[in-house]
Amino acid sequence: DSGVTQTPKHLITATGQRVTLRCSPRSGDLSVYWYQQSLDQGLQFLIQYYNGEERAKGNILERFSAQQFPDLHSELNLSSLELGDSALYFCASRWGTGDTGELFFGEGSRLTVL
Amino acid sequence: DAKTTQPTSMDCAEGRAANLPCNHSTISGNEYVYWYRQIHSQGPQYIIHGLKNNETNEMASLIITEDRKSSTLILPHATLRDTAVYYCIVRRGSGNTGKLIFGQGTTLQVKP
After folding, report:
1. Nearest residue on chain B to A106, judged by CA atoms?
2. How far apart are CA B98 and CA B90, in angstroms?
3. Which of A55, B35, B73, B99 has a Cα at 20 to 30 A from A45?
């Protein structure tokens, strides 16, 4: 158990809909990272937050947005869903930023868009 | 961050050592080598990291060549539960955001 909690574990929805994925980082971790893993793309970095502020951005679509709240949990919002958004979405956390610390990953949220 | 090259797949007999190579010929002096693994759609799991000295922990050993252009992850006594995709990643040790950029990794199949 990494200490990172993601909900929901599974989600099935239809094209055009909007969903929210939630991540609770390890206790005391200030950084949260979101990744997308689809069959044909591998693990893709989406976005990072550090203590409530966006710190790094990767291949995140404009239809996707994220935020980190004062209690440090984070949410990834996916809107106008398309079939291609079906994927595993992972959240990871670590204490700081800019050092050699490892990332701790949650078990992921599996999104299926029909 | 420097790019890495890994074999697509490898097999290993159960109980034997698994040696997973990684090439990172463009690595810079302040970049570390990290290894993570992902067991069948679970979240990636940290294994080990190093800068230039060899490192060992309870999971594995990391051997980095003197010129730092390549490294080898060693699982000393592979078990069936070590079947996974292993990712070798290079990242700066300071001034980074902490994000990891994953490549395709090596799929290790441990066979009975």
Report:
1. B43
2. 11
3. B73
Asked if residue B81 lies in contact with residue B17, where contact means CB atoms within 8 angstroms, the answer is no
Give the model's pLDDT for residue A98.
Answer: 67
Say whether the peptide bond before residue B44 is cis (omega within 30 degrees of 0).
no
The dihedrals phi and psi of B23, each to the nearest 5 degrees, come to -105, 130
Residues 6+ apart with CB under 8 A from B66: none
Cross-chain Cβ contact A105/B45 below 8 Å: yes
**Do the chains contact at A31 and B96, CB–CB below 8 Å?**
no
pLDDT values of chain A reduced to their tens digit, one per residue, 114 residues: 889 999 999 999 999 999 999 999 999 999 999 999 998 778 999 999 999 999 999 989 999 999 999 999 999 999 999 999 999 999 999 987 667 778 999 999 999 999
Cβ–Cβ below 8 Å for A92 and B43: yes
Among A42, A55, A103, select the one facing B46 at the smallest CB separation: A103
Residue of A nearest to B95 (CA): A98
- Within 8 A of B85 by CB-CB distance, chain A residues are none
